[in-house]
DNA sequence: CCCGTCGATACATCCGATGTATGGCCTCAT
DNA sequence: ATGAGGCCATACATCGGATGTATCGACGGG
C-alpha cells in the first residue's frame, strides 16, 4: 500500500481507537510526518483527503483538528458523492427517500412538541401566496428537515438531507413545470402539519408518502 | 478558497458536466496541473481526496481515470465515514436500518425470481449446525445483501450495505453473548425466506422488522 | 481596560529531483 | 508466423527545501 494510504489508515486508527478525540489538535505537519515516517507532501495528501470528508479540519496558521465527528458531517460527504450521480439514478434516491420520509414523519408525530409545531406553522405562513420556485423548494427542504429533526435520529436526519439534495436540484432544474404543483405541495404540507398536530401517526405517515409519491410521479413523467 | 479546493471543484465540475465521463482518463498530472493553474503537489492533493471517495482511480505507471461512478462506490465512501462513529450512534444507524430493511424485503418479495430464492436457500443450508460467530455474521450480511439486491434499487442496496457494517462490527465485538441468538437468527432467516417464497409481502416485511428489532433489543441491552 | 501592532507559529503552495510500477514495442528463439 | 521475454518511454510516488500567508497571543500605547 502507498505511504499516503497508510497514513490515512493510521490517522483513522488513531481516531477510532480514541487516541485522538473529537476537537483534538494533531501534531504539526512536520512532526506528524516524521512520526508516521513519510514526507510532509505525502502527509498533506492524506490530511487533505480526510478533510474532504470532514474528518479533519485544517486551519491555516493555527493547526489541524479532528472535527466533531457528528453524524451531521456524514451529510456533507454524502451529498458530495451524491452530486456525481446523474438523473437516471435520481429516481433510485427518491425511492429510498420515499421509504425514509414517511417513517421519519411518523416518528416525529409522537415526539414533536408544541413549540416546534408552531414554528412549522409559522414557516408555512411565512411563504407568500405566489412564491418563486426557489422559495418553494427552499421552504420544502426546510419543512421536511424540521420534521425529521423532531424524529430525534441525527443519522436519519443527515441521510435524508443528503438524499433530498439531488431531488431538489432536479426539481429546480426542471422548473416545476406542472401547473398545480405549487398549490398541491402547499396543500400537502398543511395536511402533514395537521396530522402531526392531531398526533395521528398513520395520517402523518400516509400524507408523507403521498407527498413523496407525487414528486416521484411528476419526476418520472418529466424525466 | 484554496487552490486545492478549487481544483477539487473543477474536476468535480468536469465530471458532472459530462466533459469527463466514467472510465475516461485524465490528462497527466503535469498537464492537468498547468491547465488548472496550480502545482503538481497541490493537484495531487485534490486527486488523492477524490480518489479516497472513489471518484477517481489512480494507477501508477498508467494514468488517472474516472471510476464507473456506480452508486455502489457510494457504499465504500459511506462505510469509511461510518467507521468513525462510536457505539453510541450505532443504535441510530440501526434504527435507520430498521426502517429500510423491511421495506427492501417487501420490495424484493414482489421481484425476486426462483433462481435467487433457491440460491438463498442453498446459502442458508451451507451453514453448518454449529457455526462460528464470524461465519454467522458473514452469512447474515450475505443473506440480507442478496435480498436487498433483489429489490432492484442499487442506491438502497449500497446504503444498507454501508449501514450494516458498523452493526455487524459491534456484534462481533460483543461476541454475540446471548445464548439463543444463533438459533433465533437462523430461524428468522428461514422465516423471511419462507415469506419470500410465499410471495407474502406483509409477512416478509414483518419478519424483517422482527429480525432487526431483535438485534436492536439485544444491542440495547448489552451496550 | 480596550485596542492596535508585532512576531512566532503552522499551514499553503511551489519547484525540482529521484524512485518505481505499468504498458507497449521490439527482438529473438521456436 | 508466432509466442515469450526483455527493454524503454511514460506517468505516478515520494521526497526535501524554500517561500508565501493566515492565525493567535503577547505586548504596549491610549
UniProtKB/TrEMBL annotation, chains A, B:
| SUPFAM superfamilies (UniProt xref) | GntR ligand-binding domain-like (SSF48008), Winged helix' DNA-binding domain (SSF46785)
Instruction: Cite the CDD domains for this sequence.
Output: WHTH_GntR
Q: Which UniProt keywords apply?
A: DNA-binding, Transcription, Transcription regulation
| Annotated Gene3D superfamilies | GntR ligand-binding domain-like, Winged helix-like DNA-binding domain superfamily/Winged helix DNA-binding domain
The molecule here is called: GntR family transcriptional regulator
The leader peptide range reads: none
Tree of life domain: Bacteria
Which InterPro entries does the record associate with it?
Answer: GntR_C, TF_FadR/GntR_C, Tscrpt_reg_HTH_GntR, WH-like_DNA-bd_sf, WH_DNA-bd_sf
Q: Which SMART domains has this protein been placed in?
A: FCD, HTH_GNTR
| Cited Pfam families | FCD (PF07729), GntR (PF00392)
Q: Does the keyword DNA-binding apply?
A: yes
- Which parts of the sequence belong to the HTH gntR-type domain? 1-69
